[in-house]
Amino acid sequence: MFSRKRSSFIPVPLLLLAARLSTSCTTYSSSLVAGHRVTSSSVEADFDSKCSSIASQLDSSIPNATIRFAEFVTQGTNLTLTDSDQHPSCVAEPAFPGSLIIRADVCRISLDVQTSGRSGIRMEAWLPRNWTGRFLSTGNGWIGGCIQYVDMAYTSSLGFATVGTNNGHDDGYSGRSFLNNSDVLEDFVYRSVHTGVVVGKDITKTFYGNEHTKSYYLGCSTGGRQGLKSIQHFPEDFDGVVAGAPGNQWNKMMDASSHIFSLTGTPDAPSFVPAEAWVNIVIPDILKQCDTIDGVEDGVIEDPNLCNYVPSPDIVCLVDSNSTSCITPEQADTVRKVFSPFFIGDEFIYPRLVPGSVSDALHVVLTGDVASAEWFKFVVNSDPNLDAKTLGPSDWKKCIAQDPFNISTFKGDISAFKNRGGKLLSYHGQGDSLISPESSEMYYDHVSSNMDLSNSQMDDFYRLFRISGMLHCFAGPGAWNVGQGLFGDTSPGSDYTDPEKNVLMATVRWVEEGMAPETIEGTKFVNDTNSLGIELSRKHCRFPLRNTYDGIGDSTKPESWSCQPVSDP
Ligand SMILES: *[C@@H]1O[C@H](CO)[C@@H](O)[C@H](O)[C@H]1NC(C)=O
Ligand SMILES: *[C@@H]1O[C@H](CO)[C@@H](O)[C@H](O)[C@H]1NC(C)=O
Ligand SMILES: *[C@@H]1O[C@H](CO)[C@@H](O)[C@H](O)[C@H]1NC(C)=O
Ligand SMILES: *[C@@H]1O[C@H](CO)[C@@H](O)[C@H](O)[C@H]1NC(C)=O
Ligand SMILES: *[C@@H]1O[C@H](CO)[C@@H](O)[C@H](O)[C@H]1NC(C)=O
Ligand SMILES: *[C@@H]1O[C@H](CO)[C@@H](O)[C@H](O)[C@H]1NC(C)=O
Ligand SMILES: *[C@@H]1O[C@H](CO)[C@@H](O)[C@H](O)[C@H]1NC(C)=O
Ligand SMILES: [Ca+2]
């Protein structure tokens, strides 16, 4: 179902999220849960009745909450999500399917929690029968409005008591509920996740009769930003955070989409490069220039920082030519500019679009429309009738200056999280053309210089893994399955919950056993289908190390690569 081509069915995500696991039954988890693992069958029958009675118990004990329902859902259930579970627009995005197969017995609790007189969140808690004692919050995608059910199913099946929220509104991918309501916006920026965590920990304790042992977070895209926000402002919320492709520098990222539109123009503009020209002419040219920099011709640009792509002269033809094998000089200029850093005047704003497959961008920022229009309409300008195509430098500056509730999420001092022993595992697809992977390097460097920490000191609590050949959060030509949830394949029975191969379980091991991940081994299945076998495995390195081919071994095997220090400027 999720072939490499599936990204062409993604309508307008821009930012997704992430989560999903399976069972990793290492001895430490057994000892952690020994006190409350369910063992006898009478206790198992109890689980069902406890689930039925929990609603009335919670209604009276959780402040500002209204329980919608609590239901026992058994493993193997094909759960159909109705419009009252999520806005219909959520279903258009594969991250939020209309149904999903439940992988473990859970008590599913749905509730509303008021966050102010004019705002509130809808959240769910999925409490697995086979609880490991761990708590976890999932995150959201793009501008929220959709509970990430796929991730809740994944993490609850791994034994985490899991929560997820709608990020403060039920409008799916529309930003209309932000209009003139800073409380809804505040929920979106940070309060939704934090409230879900506070309430979720409470529910967990009430349900199981014990406090959780450790607390985790798993998210990508907007979800990555939410994870960083928690670390920056609520350092007590989590012991371990997995932040994928984080959309921090949020305002600048909104500007960058608008800026890219200003370069491409609409599909009828002479500067516009149609998708077919990208796919048939430009992308092959990018690969021709950059694929073999890493020594292997495999469609994966291992380190795009080494790829300073400019269109080759032989793909550029004369103005007005209608050839299907070349682009016009004006289109070539567009290509060159989108792969250049974004400046307003002399001021650097945001990194370039990363050269690679750009297949995510083709559906989002290279469509000839403004991908961030919702943000400018409903937040920056409070004007639903705004024509986002007219935006320019003064609007971009205004957007940066507003920074509502510090949605930029770029605080350099995260010492409170570090000092309490928190661990941050961040990852970023090197083929991500929605959120520049360079942005993750910038944040890493910002924390490092702000806290005056060397790379090896950073390694104690903050590791950034650069995942080659991964698009935005999932998919791509590289070894992109890293247990990140979403569409990562972590089928029960597979070994992809091994901490060596799974970002979440690596974080659990780091937190609970002090064993930090050196590499994350990603897997690429043939046609992205587990049952067809493995096409490629690669151990991804932590920043700033670079994965380097030994020049002789089988390049599809991790042993033929090693993590080397980067010496270029
Ligand atoms: C519960 O988890 C343990 C390990 O934590 C595992 O051995 C066992 O098979 C699981 N039981 C069920 C019913 O999933
Ligand atoms: C689950 O149910 C949906 C309809 O709600 C159906 O389209 C889907 O094929 C079902 N999945 C499986 C695996 O049976
Ligand atoms: C309950 O909601 C009100 C706003 O409606 C808020 O002021 C108060 O802090 C909330 N209480 C808790 C415990 O969250
Ligand atoms: C939102 O607020 C702006 C000014 O702050 C006002 O012009 C506009 O009418 C308001 N829109 C709505 C829908 O209330
Ligand atoms: C190029 O093709 C388009 C439609 O395919 C046509 O409208 C246009 O006139 C052609 N231009 C030239 C210079 O042939
Ligand atoms: C944003 O962050 C700055 C600096 O950390 C702080 O002074 C300010 O109060 C924050 N603003 C909001 C709305 O949280
Ligand atoms: C993989 O997908 C391609 C294109 O869809 C198809 O031609 C090929 O047969 C598939 N390979 C396998 C092993 O299914
Ligand atoms: Ca390569």
TrEMBL record:
Recorded catalytic activity of this chain's protein: feruloyl-polysaccharide + H2O = ferulate + polysaccharide
Recorded GO MF terms: feruloyl esterase activity; metal ion binding
Entry keyword annotation includes Metal-binding: yes
InterPro entries in alphabetical order: AB_hydrolase_fold, Tannase/feruloyl_esterase
Keywords, sorted A to Z: Calcium, Carbohydrate metabolism, Disulfide bond, Hydrolase, Metal-binding, Polysaccharide degradation, Serine esterase, Signal, Xylan degradation
Entry superkingdom: Eukaryota
One GO BP annotation of this record: xylan catabolic process
Segment forming the signal sequence: 1-24
Pfam name, any one: Tannase
Enzyme class: hydrolase
Claim: Disulfide bond is one of the keywords in the record: yes
Enzyme Commission number(s): 3.1.1.-
Family as reported in the entry's similarity comment: Belongs to the tannase family.
Protein name: Carboxylic ester hydrolase
Organism name: Tetrapyrgos nigripes
